[in-house]
């Protein structure tokens, strides 16, 4: 079946612009996670949804970062007033049971 | 919160040799420890995982061991092949949140 799909794959933004990153989880997966992966580093947790409820947003680095999943399927990560330090790959993962997280290919964000 | 440390950061082995990657964690409440393989520009892919009620798990050439007392777990790859070359990440946590290590670049030399 289809895996986790993320779009766009690449995004270039000028500093100060707002961006929106989309994640389509595997159909039926209840849990959805967003991670930030800097070059040469492991993914860092940003936020977690169970259905439409955002149960943990402790990893969001600032109030410029906002995530939503209004109908419990597709999720959007929004970054307002982007800064150069926001440049990274943003990974989405979904999970149904037994903790196993399946990752998307990510969105590579470059802020100039 | 959880802190996961991973060693070594780079590892080169000859084809056919074994490779071992080690991780430690800090939170005794963590109960789930997956390992992911990530090739350049690709998504992380789960290769094996272990839960806190199990000490060892094996899947063909890959095995993982967990020592809850010492709070460390290890990945063992036997009979390495060039296609095993990639970055490997360990992680620790629960169903709600995983903390990843910083990764090990494994190179298998033909």
Can you tell me about this structure?
The complex is a heterodimer of chains A (112) and B (110). By secondary structure, chain A is mainly β. Chain A is 0% helix and 49% strand. In chain A, the strands form two sheets. In chain A, strands 2, 4, 5, 6, 9, 10 and 11 form a seven-stranded mixed sheet that branches. The model of chain A has no long low-confidence stretch (mean pLDDT 95). With 110 residues, chain B is mostly beta strands. Chain B has strands at 4-7, 10-14, 19-25, 32-38, 45-51, 56-59, 62-67, 72-77, 86-93, 98-100, 104-109. At the A-B interface, strand 4, strand 5 and strand 10 of A face strand 4, strand 5 and strand 10 of B.
Name the descriptors:
heterodimer, A: 112 residues, mainly beta, seven-stranded mixed β-sheet, four-stranded antiparallel β-sheet, globular, B: 110 residues, six-stranded mixed β-sheet, five-stranded antiparallel β-sheet, 11 strands, 0% helix
Describe the secondary-structure layout:
The complex is a heterodimer of chains A (112) and B (110).
Chain A: E1 5-7, E2 10-13, E3 19-24, E4 31-37, E5 44-50, E6 53-56, E7 65-68, E8 75-79, E9 88-95, E10 102-103, E11 107-111
Parallel strand pairs in A: 2-11
Antiparallel strand pairs in A: 1-3, 3-8, 4-5, 4-9, 5-6, 7-8, 9-10, 9-11
Chain B: E1 4-7, E2 10-14, E3 19-25, E4 32-38, E5 45-51, E6 56-59, E7 62-67, E8 72-77, E9 86-93, E10 98-100, E11 104-109
Parallel strand pairs in B: 2-11
Antiparallel strand pairs in B: 1-3, 3-8, 4-5, 4-9, 6-7, 7-8, 9-10, 9-11
SS summary, helix count of chain B? 0
- Give the strand content of chain B: over 45%
Report the count of strand segments of chain B.
11
Structural class of chain A: mainly beta
Oligomer: heterodimer
- Overall pLDDT score of chain A: 95
Assign an overall shape of chain A: globular
State mean pLDDT of chain B (0 to 100 scale): 95
Largest sheet of chain B: 6 strands, mixed
- Uncertain stretches of 5 or more adjacent residues of chain B: none
Termini gap of chain A? 37 Å
Order of helices and strands of chain B: EEEEEEEEEEE
Described by strand count, sense and barrel closure, the largest sheet of chain A is: 7 strands, mixed
> What gyration radius of chain A follows from the Cα positions, in whole Å?
13 Å
Tell me the strand percentage band of chain A.
over 45%
> What distance lies between the first and last C-alpha atoms of chain B, to the nearest angstrom?
41 Å
User: Largest interface, and how many residues on either side?
Assistant: A-B, 24 and 24 residues
Instruction: Give the helix level of chain B as a range of percent.
Output: under 10%
């Amino acid at each position: 079946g289809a895996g986790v799909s993320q779009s766009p794959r690449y995004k270039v933004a000028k500093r100060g612009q707002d961006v929106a990153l989309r994640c389509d989880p595997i159909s039926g997966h209840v849990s959805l996670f967003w991670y930030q992966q800097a070059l040469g580093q492991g993914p860092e947790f940003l936020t977690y949804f169970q259905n439409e409820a955002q149960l943990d947003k402790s990893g969001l680095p600032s109030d410029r970062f906002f995530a939503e999943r209004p109908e419990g399927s597709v999720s959007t990560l929004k970054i307002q007033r982007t800064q150069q330090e926001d440049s990274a790959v943003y990974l989405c993962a979904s999970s149904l049971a037994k903790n196993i997280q399946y990752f998307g290919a990510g969105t590579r964000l470059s802020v100039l | 919160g959880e802190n996961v440390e991973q060693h070594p950061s780079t590892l080169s082995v000859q084809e056919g040799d074994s490779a071992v990657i080690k991780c430690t964690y800090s939170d005794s409440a963590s109960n789930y420890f997956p390992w992911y393989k990530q090739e350049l520009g690709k998504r992380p892919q789960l290769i094996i995982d272990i839960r806190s009620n199990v000490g060892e798990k094996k899947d063909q050439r890959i095995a993982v061991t967990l020592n809850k007392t010492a709070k460390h777990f290890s990945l063992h790859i036997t009979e390495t092949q060039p296609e095993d070359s990639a970055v490997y990440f360990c992680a620790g946590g629960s169903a709600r949140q995983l903390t990843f290590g910083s990764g090990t670049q494994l190179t298998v030399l033909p």
